[in-house]
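Final report, Chapter 2: Outcomes

The project's central promise was a pipeline that accepts a single protein chain and returns its three-dimensional structure in a standardized token representation, suitable for archiving and comparison. That pipeline is now operational. To close this chapter, we reproduce one record exactly as it appears in the project archive, with the input sequence first and the structure output second.
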Amino acid sequence: MTPDKHSDNHWMAHAIKLAEKAQQQNEVPVGAVIVKDNNIIGEGWNQPISSHDPTAHAEIQAIRMACRHQNNYRLPGTTLYISLEPCLMCAGAIVHSRIGRVVFAAKEPKAGAAGSCFDIFNENKLNHRVQCEQGLLATQSSQLLKQFFKARR
């Protein structure tokens, strides 16, 4: 899985568009897309409020779709693009689904599990390592989140 910065930008921009979809539904604007062989196999946006489901984060939605698409609960050889650093629940699901690479935009200093509060992807006690990169289109994602929370206050 060789990273291609042009493709990374394209897929992260798509994740941010999905975050905008969440925002239109009055959900916290987070979007996620899973790519394999330069094709989308799963995507999602935050929906816990509208679905009355605390597990309906963008990453979980994308993982569920990708697993159905692949007819497998494991997703080796995939990259997950997320507009916000994953939480502990989502990081656990990423490890369990064997996603190979995660690229996220903005850090989540209050609940991030990819380096901010926890560093699950580098935890030696786990049996799967996830390559993780951060900061791609972080400004765009951060602005979207700031605008959302400003409007809610």
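Archive annotation: Residues 20 and 29 are 6 Å apart (CA to CA).
This record, like all others produced under the grant, will remain available to the consortium after the project formally closes.
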